[in-house]
User: What shape does this take?
Amino acid sequence: MTSAHPAIELLRIIGSPFLADRAENPVESNELYQYAFKNRIGLLYLLALKERDRLDGLWEEYEKLDYRMRETLVTAARVAKVLNEAGINYVVFKTIRPYPATPNDTDIICLDSYDKALNALREAGYIELYPAPMQVAFSDPRGEGKVARDKRGGTYYVDLYKHAATDYFIYLSKSKLRRNVISVPVDSCSEVKVLRPEVELAAILMHSVFPEMSYGLESFYTTCYYFSQWNDGQFERFIKFAQNSHIVLPVRASLSITATLHQEAFGEVPDKLLGVLNRMGGFYQPEIDQVRDSGFKMPHKFGFTTFLRTFLAKLAEPSSLASLGVQAFHMLNPVFAKEVFTTILKRRTRETYVQM
Assistant: This one.
């Protein structure tokens, strides 16, 4: 089975966690690899080739991404150990996926004592790269001389967040996150604090709509891998967290695209995915129409209406509503206001978040 759409061809080569069958003779293609890399699933594509002895000219790229994946986990483990030893309550999110992944950075939300966490990283030799309103970007000391502002190459970057926020606007409540933290072993650290998978996925899907406005094929595989593993209790927790956090719309929009891609690539929508969508209001047609109209171009840019409706829904949460006032106050600074309107909004509406 072949397809004129690179996204659909990639899905058929990599396969679905819900299905045993994959393309029998996968194609090694630099064009497909670049498409996969842009969608942050480059390593998945190369692994699919390797597993079926079809990896040849892209072997060096496979070795680079495999090294990047393993070293990123080292970065996550090292920073978790520093924070553990300092007694910081934190959570790593959007970083450790249920499949071999190469994120641009290790994202950490500090659940208390933000200044203490900043000092702990500085004292441990972490290199401060640049600040933002609710976060500071660091590099692991191993990255000295290898890092850049655009995070090209990933691996060594650590973003320490005071809140899950864009500028000063908080889009996920820390009080709700605190109740959903677990510890898992990662590399040399036996206790890396992460979100429960059900909450992690909801947070990832929210973040892809607000603030990133971008759906890449990494969202497809993150969703499908998690959903294929979960039991009824986990689906219940996923839905309840989305409802209680006022993020049903962005989650529903993302799941609708995932279902549409699965139908196009494999001829069916998994029952688990369909069941959750039905409980969350059914397919969100505006984004489906845009995906189909674009010829399944990925990454997909979420519509501004979806972005705006997501923002308005968040105002029902006290922490988000209160932070809007803080954002408005800072917008009185003309320099900051100009940055928001001419740089940030322009990027959100014209660009997609891709692998660096």
Remarks:
- The two ends are 31 Å apart (CA to CA).
